[in-house]
Amino acid sequence: MKNLTKNILIGFSLGLIFGISINLINLDQSEKKFIIEILSVGGEIFLKVIKMLVVPIVFFSLTSGVANLNELNTLGKIGIKSISLYILTTFFAITGSLIFANLLDPGKGFNLKIENNDITISEPPSLNEVILNIIPNNPFESLVNGNMLQVIFFAILLGSAISISKKKELTKFFNDFNLVIMKVLSISLIIAPVGIFCLISRTFATQGLGSIIELAKYFFVVSFALFLHVIFIYLPLIRIFGKVKVIKFFNGMKEALIFAFSTSSSSATIPVTLENLKKNFSVKDKIASFTVPLGATINMDGTAIMQGVATVFIANAYGVDLSIIDYLNIILTSTLASIGTAGVPGVGIIMLGMVLNQVGLPLEGIALIMGVDRFLDMLRTAVNVSGDSMVSIIINKSEKK
Ligand code: ASP
Predict the structure, then answer these.
(1) Which residues contact 365 (CB under 8 A, 6 or more apart)?
(2) Least CB-packed of 29, 176, 358, 387 within 10 Å?
(3) Which of 261, 269, 299, 380 to mutate to test the pocket of ligand 1 (most atoms within 8 A of CB)?
(4) Whole-structure pTM over 0.85, yes or no?
(5) Does domain 2-112+121-400 have CATH number 2.60.40?
(6) Among residues of the chain, what percentage have pLDDT more than 70?
């Protein structure tokens, strides 16, 4: 793993240099297209291999984790604690980002006019829908479609039934399968450095640097709000309740964070997050395999922060004054939207459409920030994964007591 980390960092740095050079060097359009196509294939191969493992890892590790529990009420406690922490931190994230964005007021210089705002977008999922959607119609369909909340629901039920019926052989089967699938992960990770090189250089080769400069203020406010959330919410929580030193946290989670940053997908990062938590923080299987996939599905603090700042930015750009009711609406919608968001690239910005719709802001505003969203997606996904890991470590600590 040590060598792997080093190689990943090398792949990442080379990708950065290569991507920026492609962008700056005067290449023929056709040459540039060719290089980007090769990078895309390399990056996609890596992403597909990792994504392929997400559902089997979550299913087998959670079922085996629960099947090994002797007392099932432990699981109930873990569930209530983690969901409360996830929702509480998301609430802080969105509220903090709204306050921060209002202090710095990005977007004031734009002076845009609202034209026809007739693009319709679906309503945010209601609480009812969110809850009902957790129960699968057919668990096999949920596995095939990779519907994480439904897979979690079914795995818990199955694991509990195995634990109650005391079928030792079945528990052993799931434990063994879990070990084997983690081995498949270790083997697959061999290609990670090259995959990350391709992903990073493609991003930096395709996104013009000019658009970043134009939206520097928006970019800065979102990045700074993400940073503040980590410093003032995550780090104190991890130090006080998780009893883990800040340096140790980042050191132990660095692979997962680099993965999150490079793939912009908390879901695709699940296998690495699990591995880091179990190996470097001795988080118990039953806790990690429950909190991490759940977090990657419902806990998106970084996304909520982006949505808060983006809403203020778009309101400013179009000269719209938001009322207190609007702000409350944004807090509620963003929290619900983040629960309903899958941890895959670019979903946050789609969900932003729902938030804008809710407070009557023009959806065209999304186009303003689309150019820099690719980069912010990387940062916020790393924050999303830090949040999941923090909760996992805290719950592990509290369960030890
Ligand atoms: N890419 C983010 C994630 O996977 C979601 C988003 O904000 O687009 O965590």
Answers:
(1) 112, 310, 313, 314, 317, 318, 356
(2) 29
(3) 380
(4) no
(5) no
(6) 91
